[in-house]
From TrEMBL:
Physiological role: Involved in vesicular recycling, probably as a RAB11B GTPase-activating protein.
Species annotation: Gasterosteus aculeatus aculeatus (three-spined stickleback)
GO cellular component, as recorded: cytosol
Residues of the EF-hand domain: 861-896
SMART domains assigned: GRAM, TBC
Keywords recorded for this protein, A-Z: Calcium, Cytoplasm, GTPase activation, Metal-binding, Repeat
Comp. bias regions, Polar residues: 719-736, 1007-1017
Protein's UniProt name: TBC1 domain family member 8B
Length: 1029
């Protein structure tokens, strides 16, 4: 490998190198302790030194140095793993460089020429693979060590590497940690003791930062039931973030079969880089905090002050810029942030250079002012270009008008800072509305109603209107502590839909996709899938007590929204609990708004909640358990097994408490959820348990605890709700309310924020990532046990053998997904299939695994046999084999009777296994996921399998002569070369020859003699001698 020329003052410092060859300008050296005469004490010391110092010599013990006769300075220009490799470089220098050097007059010119030539060679080599790395030279050397030490497939992409200590008990091993796309690797070599560790990311159960008495902070990795600890003096947080990213990337790619089409940095596992992972992590955190669409990426970050007009002070924070949004978040504890869509910006004005400030002017006479912005001119130009605003002094008449309006706005703002209405503006409410929220239709508010509840509702509206006048209204509203305080007190019915849209970010989705929902409704109209069948079944179970869903108006709207979403996102389709959530959204939001709110919940705020395995809900339940241990120790002491709370709280998370609370109380919880996300649900869950702590501690069993919680939820009321009794839900436990004091939902939420409001969103997200690995691996383990239990009933393998085969099958499935996004198993993955069919193998992966497990050790035509076996057991002919089909084949070959084994071999020489061309493995690739599932066909197939009689030899069709000859050859190849089967091999050859002669005699007796007939007979007998040879 050519190296970037590096100066070496002493060519043989400490006698660590031995010269193998030299000439006037170059020296070829070998590292002492390697190669011929290596080993011994010198080899141990040198090897240890090389590992600790991260020397390339550890894996490349040969090098070439460049020097000139009149200089004592040497330059390292090449290294090699083997002597053959370094000799190739040496010969190349002799043939291509030595002759040229004689024409130079000075040593400086010679050295410059050699260095330039070597750098050119390195640049040519690194054009493709190393162009994205931060330090290509050092990375090339690390890659060389990585490939040499771990011997992984050449496609494996090294992402980054760190110096660290690996702890074996209380003894640290100093070495190097290598993080690649699919593996975590560690290597250490100290005084002859070599430590090598390779862990696949898909085998990691837990990944977390920990500390103990010995280590102040370390990274804990749990895999294969073993604990691994890594510590380092520097870059521990950076290392942990990269490890988290790679583990999460592996989980999404291998378990969830995501293709990352919208994320170029992650779409190709062969091009993953440290820089790309770090950018992805920052963008993910940015989108989560500001509730932005998945398409947005964090492009620039600038520290600045934001003038907060309603408080009359500058708050310190960061400006975050993406493709379509300008966002600001404070960092001084004021909890102020603002989101400005680029589509709203009409101009950007720069003030004097001393304050380094700029003012962003928006539609509706709104403006925000940033000051002390480093690089404010560049930022202003960037915003202008993204908004399509010309920075040139040449303006059209309309541009001049806008400029004049913005300048007058800025002047007014500077002269009258107390006038906050102009600064943050009012929402433009002139848009025409096509539909209404169901609550508006079925429960219109009476303006003249002077009942106490209605008066209180009007007071809430007035409070919010004052808030809008100070903080702004619409997409550019300032979010502050006062906003949260108003949310906790309760949102007025008339403003609920608008605020849900704003807090969730759905308002931006809808604004950037005009007409999208109506198009989806038209496209999905009349489609018939498993999702639409389930939707129809659940339509009348969605808030059946509410008048809106006792009419066709509400039911039709619910059907359209759910069907449109199932059509938009077939990966989720439809999941139970989506109907309940969507019903509540339709009560307070227009139909299109309800659709975009559902998109925000399912795809951003509650990721992975609504799918077959509800992984997201299980992860948040694990987070909930961690919070219970931290905040309710008394309850933990009484109930050591917290899985009870996981089972009872599942509906809390899936339906946001809507299924357990009356609708008039549940909507207050939904208000908090749209503002604070899952943190609000976790806080309320802790408060519910804390409120009932005494009763739960005195419980004797789980059933009693469930009864206590149900009675508590029945007692929760909303004393301020203006809804009439016909709309409010009647509690199931109405008769028992007298025995339990009533609890107002506003007081409960206020208590949740007071007691548990210190839970930070960042901590929740970190806990989510930590628990996700464990949840997924637990589900995978449960799936494996279910698969083995089903397959055990139909094969003779023991459970332990099936466990080993399953692990090999799963590993082979993952191997086909490691280095490509286009393997057959990925392209045709269908999450709606049963767990038996989730892991499948294409022919190449099947052939590799089958060749390791099949019993024909001496067979010379394994590849052909593997192809025939693959075709035979691929019953649906989709070019993929599942675990059950694979086990059936192995069970027949290992545990089947002699007759069944013979039948299996016989079938290999019948269609569809035998008569197809070699390239015809994948015969059809059915479109999965959207098609209607024929349940009747499944039931009929199941019935046929139950009634199917065991196939006998008599049921097998006859084979023709060519198939018989191939069958004989197969038997010959299977037994030939096995000393224990030599007699059987000779018997097969003898019997085959006799049968072919008998067939020839029979044909001659039945057919008249003719030239063609004799030719056919001769052709038929032709292979016989070769079988016996």
């Amino acid at each position: 490998m050519w190296l970037k020329p590096d100066e070496i003052l002493l060519k043989n410092a400490f006698k660590l190198w031995v010269t193998e060859d030299d000439n006037e300008y170059f020296v070829l050296q070998r590292r002492r302790g390697y190669g011929d005469g290596g080993g011994g004490l010198t080899g141990l010391l040198v090897g240890t030194l090389d590992t600790v110092l991260d020397s390339t010599s550890k894996v490349a013990p040969y090098r070439i140095l460049h020097h000139t006769p009149d200089s004592q300075v040497y330059w390292s220009i090449a290294c090699g793993v083997t002597k053959e490799e370094i000799v190739q470089h040496w010969e190349w220098l002799q043939q291509n460089i030595m002759r040229t050097l004689s024409v130079f007059d000075s040593s400086e010119d010679i050295t410059s020429f050699v260095q330039g030539k070597i750098r050119g060679l390195i640049a040519e080599e690194g054009k493709t693979s190393l162009v994205l790395e931060e330090d290509p030279e050092k990375f090339r050397e690390a890659l060389l060590r990585f490939e040499k030490w771990f011997e992984l497939p050449p496609m494996e992409k090294l992402v980054t590497y760190y110096s660290c200590s690996y702890w074996r008990g209380k003894v640290p091993c100093q070495g190097w940690l290598y993080l690649s796309t699919n593996f975590l690797c560690f290597y250490s070599y100290l005084l002859g003791a070599e430590v090598k560790l390779i862990i696949s990311w898909d085998e990691v159960w837990r990944l977390e930062k920990t500390s103990n008495v010995i280590l102040t902070e370390s990274i804990h990795v749990l895999a294969h039931g073993e604990d691994h600890y890594f510590s380092m003096l520097m870059h521990l947080n950076e290392t942990f973030v990269i490890m988290e990213q790679l583990a999460d990337y592996s989980v999404k790619r291998l378990f969830d079969k995501e293709s990352f089409q919208r994320e170029p940095a992650l779409s190709d596992p062969l091009q993953i880089t440290k820089r790309g992972l770090e950018a992805h992590a920052k963008s993910e955190q940015f989108r989560t905090f500001f509730r932005l669409p998945k398409e947005e990426n964090l492009l620039e970050v600038h520290e600045s002050f934001l003038w907060v007009p309603f408080s009359h002070f500058n708050t310190l924070g960061k400006i975050c810029l993406s493709e379509n949004y300008l966002c600001f978040a404070s960092q001084d504890g004021s909890q102020c942030h603002v989101i400005i869509p680029m589509r709203e910006v009409i101009n950007v004005e720069k003030s004097d250079a001393s304050s380094r400030s700029l003012t962003v002017c928006m539609r509706g006479k709104r403006a925000v002012r940033f000051s002390e912005v480093r690089g404010y001119q560049l930022l202003a130009n960037t915003i202008r270009s993204r908004c399509g605003i010309s920075a040139s002094p040449q303006h059209s008449a309309s541009s001049e008008a806008i400029r004049g309006e913005c300048q007058s706005l800025i002047n007014h703002f500077e002269d009258n800072p107390e006038d906050v209405t102009l600064m943050v503006g009012q929402k433009d409410s002139s848009k025409a509305v096509s539909t209404e929220a169901l609550m508006t239709v079925f429960h219109p508010q009476d303006v003249e109603n002077l009942e106490p509840k209605m008066l209180k509702e009007k007071m809430k509206e007035q409070s919010w209107n004052i808030h809008f006048s100070e903080y702004g209204r619409g997409t550019s509203m300032f979010f502050t502590r006062k906003t949260r305080d108003l949310i906790v007190r309760g949102v007025p019915e008339a403003l609920r839909g608008e605020l849900w849209m704003l807090f969730s970010g759905a308002v931006n989705d809808m604004a950037t996709h005009p007409g999208y929902y109506s198009d989806l409704v038209e496209q999905s109209l009349g489609t018939s899938t498993l999702a639409t069948d389930e939707i129809e079944r659940d339509l009348h179970r969605s808030l059946p007590e509410h008048p809106a869903f006792q009419s066709d108006t509400g039911i039709s709207a619910l059907r359209r929204v759910l069907t449109a979403y199932a059509y938009r996102n077939p990966k989720i389709g439809y999941c139970q609990a989506m109907n309940i959530l969507t019903s509540v959204l339709l009560l307070y939001a227009k139909e299109e708004e309800a659709f975009w709110l559902l998109v925000a919940v399912c795809e951003r705020m509650l990721p992975d909640y609504f799918n077959r395995r509800i992984i997201g809900a299980l992860v948040d339940q694990a987070v909930f358990e961690d919070l219970i241990r931290e905040n309710l120790p008394q309850l933990v002491e009484h109930m050591t097994d917290l899985s009870f709370f996981s089972s009872v709280s599942l509906s809390w998370f899936l339906t946001l408490f809507i299924s357990v609370l009356p609708i008039e109380s549940a909507v207050n919880v939904v208000d908090c959820f749209f503002y604070d996300g899952i943190k609000a649900i976790l806080q309320l869950g802790l408060t519910v348990l804390d409120y009932n702590l005494g009763a739960l501690i005195s419980c004797q069993d789980d059933a009693e605890a469930v009864t206590i919680l149900n009675k508590f939820f029945d007692s929760v009321t909303n004393k301020d709700s203006p809804l009439p009794s016909t709309v409010q839900q009647a509690s199931a436990g109405n008769n028992d309310r007298a025995s339990h004091p009533k609890v107002d939902i506003s007081e409960l939420i206020r208590e949740a924020y007071e007691k548990y409001g210190n839970i930070r969103t960042e901590e929740v997200e970190s806990s989510r990532k930590r628990n996700k690995l464990h949840v997924i691996q637990t589900l995978e383990d449960t799936t494996k046990q279910n698969v083995i239990r089903v397959v055990t009933q139909e094969v003779q393998f023991s459970a332990s053998h099936l466990d080993s085969i399953y692990n090999l099958f799963k590993r082979q499935h993952f191997l086909c997904c490691y280095w490509t996004m286009k393997s057959p198993a990925l392209l045709h993955h269908d999450p709606s299939l049963a767990y038996l069919e989730q892991y499948q193998l294409g022919f190449q992966q099947f052939s590799t695994l089958f060749s390791l497990l099949e019993p024909w050790a001496f067979c010379t035509s394994k590849s052909t046999l593997s192809l025939w076996v693959f075709r035979l057991i691929d019953e649906n002919q989709d070019g993929l084999v599942n675990f059950k089909e694979f086990c059936f084949a192995l069970d027949t070959l290992y545990s089947g009777s002699f007759t069944n084994k013979l039948k299996f071999l016989f079938k290999l020489h019948l269609p569809p296994a035998f008569d197809l061309p070699e390239e015809g493995v994948i015969r059809k690739s059915p479109e999965r996921g959207r098609g209607k599932v024929d349940l009747q066909a499944y039931l009929k197939q199941w019935q046929n399998e139950i009634l199917r009689k065991e196939e006998t030899i008599k049921d097998l069709p006859r084979i023709n002569q060519s198939q018989f000859i191939q069958f004989s050859k197969t038997l010959y190849n299977i037994f030939h070369g096995d000393p224990e089967e030599e007699s059987l091999y000779r018997a097969v050859a003898h019997v085959t020859s006799l049968l072919l002669r008998m067939e020839e005699v029979g044909r001659r007796l039945q057919e008249p003699t003719s030239p063609s007939g004799n030719m056919t007979a001769a052709t038929a007998c032709g292979p016989a001698p070769s079988l016996m040879s």
